[in-house]
Write a structure and sequence with these properties.
It is a single chain. The protein is 38% helix and 13% strand. It has 294 residues and is α+β, with helices and mostly antiparallel strands. The chain folds into two domains: 3-131; 151-277, Rieske [2Fe-2S] iron-sulphur domain (Rieske Iron-sulfur Protein, 3-layer Sandwich), CATH 2.102.10. The strands form three sheets. It has a five-stranded antiparallel sheet with strand order 1-2-3-4-9. A four-stranded antiparallel sheet has the order 5-6-7-8, with no helix packed on it. α1 (3-39) runs antiparallel to α2 (44-69), α1 packs parallel to α3 and α2 packs antiparallel against α3. The longest helix is centred in the middle third of the chain and has 38 residues, at 86-123. Bound molecules: FE2/S2 (inorganic) cluster. FE2/S2 (inorganic) cluster binds at residues 219, 221-222, 224, 238, 240-241, 243, 256-258.
Length: 294
Amino acid sequence: MSRLRVAAARERRPLAERVAAACLAASMVGTVGLGATYWLGGQPQLEGGFLFLALAGIGVGIVTWGKYLVPQGPYVQDRPPMASPDPEVEAMNDSLGRGLGQMTRRRFLLRLLGGSVGVFAVVNLFPFLRSLGPLPGKSLFVTNWKKGSRLVTASGRVVTASDLEVGGILTVFPEGFEGAPTNAIDQVVLVRAASYDLVTKPGRETWGPQGYLAFSKVCTHAGCPVGLYQELTQQLLCPCHQSLFDVLTGATPVFGPAPRPLPQLPLYVDPQGGLRSQSGFDEPIGPGFWERGA
Ligand code: FES
């Protein structure tokens, strides 16, 4: 490297160090601003601006560092006379004298770089962890169906035993929860089959009065709503991956990836003709999960 270039690089060094430090510090400010904005409820434009500042600060800081503070090639020196002239000897002594200061500044820049990257990583962990949502607790095991719950439509109308013809279908909810935020897990598909066609499982002989059968609408494969009914074959169809459930045999899967039948809700007809549940579901609804198995 020619002496002129070395001298020019040496002149630019202090300025480059300040620029790199300012960029890394600005990055930390941007990251903290991003975290604070997210924590206070979020504002997309502001978060975007802070994210830009955080990433641009790290990027420009590293580029400045690499371009002006790291020795550049080509590493071919002009051959000066073997004996060093006096000014060069003085420059060397001067450089050695400033060595401690240069090391300190380099260490400071290194720490600033580590700090800006570390703060960025830690702050951005919050949105990731928060987006996982609350732990499900026991909510995967229970619904709002209880002993004696009246079946109602989405609008809250009570369902009676005269509402459906054979082959009819209706989505129902437990009374009082038709508009609740949790009603997705309470959805039940009510179908009416010809009672003489039913093949009930042992212990379920009383669960389908007058041919009314109620099954959880949450697919046991991946949780889509099982909302289609083929009256001719009396099968429920999940539109997501085409699982078919045979209504007449307790919604057992006969096609597709669903691994188990739709849980059945036991029903009875009250003295006023309304349909009610004998109890809640006797098993968790929906797809298998780690505590329940397939
Ligand atoms: S979610 Fe129903 S078949 Fe996949």
